[in-house]
Amino acid sequence: MNNLKLIFFSISVIILISVSPSAVSAENVPAWIKNNALWYGQGDITETEFLNSIKFLIENNILVLENDEPIKRNQLEQIIIPNGNYVVSGGNFYLPLNLEIHPMTTVQWINDDIVLHTVQSQDEYGGIIGLFNSAPLNTGETFEFKFTEEGVYNYYCSLHPWRVGLVTVR
Ligand SMILES: [Cu+2]
C-alpha cells in the first residue's frame, strides 16, 4: 500500500483504539468490521469502504464519540442554611444564594443554624406555593426536593422571611 494509505490506516486504528476505550467493547465490534480493518491494511478494500465501517460503529453506538461534558443527572446538590442565617442584618445568606443545577437533580437543604428554619417555595409575588415545603428544621436536619423541570425557583424561610434564595434549573 502507498504511504498515504498507511498513514490513514494507522490513524484510523488509533482512533478505533483510543477515542473512547471505555465505550468500545471488542465483543461489540462485528467480525466483518474487524475483517475490514485487516483488508484495508492489506489494500483489499477501498478507503470509502473502510470509512463506512467506522461510520457503522458510530451510528450504532458501538464507537462513542464523547461530548465536551456529559450532563450529570440524578445528582445531589446541597444548600447550607449557615449559622447566623436568622439574623436580619447578617450576611449569612444561603450557600449558595442561587444554586444552578440541571433537571433531575435533588437539592438538599441542611440547617447549620442554631434556630429552626423552613424552606417554602414561592411564586413570583412572594406567596407560598405547594411545590416544595419543609417542616421546621432543627439544627442538623435536612429537607430534599428533586427538580425535574427547567426554571427559576424562589424560596424563603417562613420564620425569617427576609431570607430568600433561588434554585435555577437549566
Ligand atoms: Cu429561617
Give an overview of the whole structure.
By secondary structure, the protein is α/β, with parallel strands linked by helices. The chain is built from three helices and eight strands; from the N terminus they run αααββββββββ. Helix content is 24%, strand content 26%. It folds into two domains: 3-59, no CATH class; 76-169, Cupredoxins -  blue copper proteins (Immunoglobulin-like, Sandwich). The model has no long low-confidence stretch (mean pLDDT 86). A five-stranded mixed β-sheet has the order 2-8-7-4-5, with no helix packed on it. It has a three-stranded mixed β-sheet with strand order 1-3-6, with no helix packed on it. It is rod-shaped, with a radius of gyration of 27 Å. It has helices spanning 3-18, 31-42, 47-59, and strands at residues 76-81, 98-101, 105-111, 120-122, 128-133, 142-147, 151-156, 164-169. The longest helix is centred in the N-terminal third of the chain and has 16 residues, at 3-18. Bound molecules: copper (II) ion. The site of copper (II) ion (CU) has 6 residues, from loops. Residues 86, 117, 157, 159-160, 163 line the site of copper (II) ion. One of its GO terms (molecular function) is electron transfer activity. InterPro entries: BlueCu_1, Cupredoxin, ET_Amicyanin.
Secondary-structure blueprint:
Layout: H1 3-18, H2 31-42, H3 47-59, E1 76-81, E2 98-101, E3 105-111, E4 120-122, E5 128-133, E6 142-147, E7 151-156, E8 164-169
Parallel strand pairs: 1-3, 2-8
Antiparallel strand pairs: 3-6, 4-5, 4-7, 7-8
Helix pairs in contact: 2-3
